[in-house]
Amino acid sequence: QKEVEQDPGPLSVPEGAIVSLNCTYSNSAFQYFMWYRQYSRKGPELLMYTYSSGNKEDGRFTAQVDKSSKYISLFIRDSQPSDSATYLCAMTGAGSYQLTFGKGTKLSVIP
Amino acid sequence: AAGVIQSPRHLIKEKRETATLKCYPIPRHDTVYWYQQGPGQDPQFLISFYEKMQSDKGSIPDRFSAQQFSDYHSELNMSSLELGDSALYFCASSLATTNTYQETQYFGPGTRLLVL
User: pLDDT tens digits for A63-86?
Assistant: First the structure.
């Protein structure tokens, strides 16, 4: 079993919909959680970074962390066709330099 | 804002050849990370350097080596290339913080390596 599980999708939604992306993890040492967006043939782009349970909002994006359940989520409000990409969750523990990624969820927002 | 620069962007090699990938971190960033992403896969951590010293090591084959230079750029050297080495190689950089162990990593555009 991978340390980080993420449904690869693909996920297809109409423009304007609320998108919910999720990851679960098994390693209790993970303390820092990130969401990256990756367009085809491009490098991952950091979207959100959190280190505590609760919600963090940035524009149309909300990251949610529930450490007790080892579950993280990314919500995208008013989704746009430009949001079409693969979304990767990533996490790491204190004192670690390496990120452990989920497999990524491919999202398509249909105009 | 300046981003992570990687070169070359594309590289074609034959089996058993050698390849060198270069990474130039964001200015003032002192930590560099290398990741390998196979087709349809998530990025896998290879190795990282902080202040020119190896800081962490992941699933990097013995055929690969890397180093960070005095100007903080890094090179990933890959020898005896195999077909399975064909992948996207990403470099990321960060600035070490003093109050937490976690530094936000910013990724470059990647080098696409094809081994024939």
Answer: 999 999 999 999 999 999 999 999
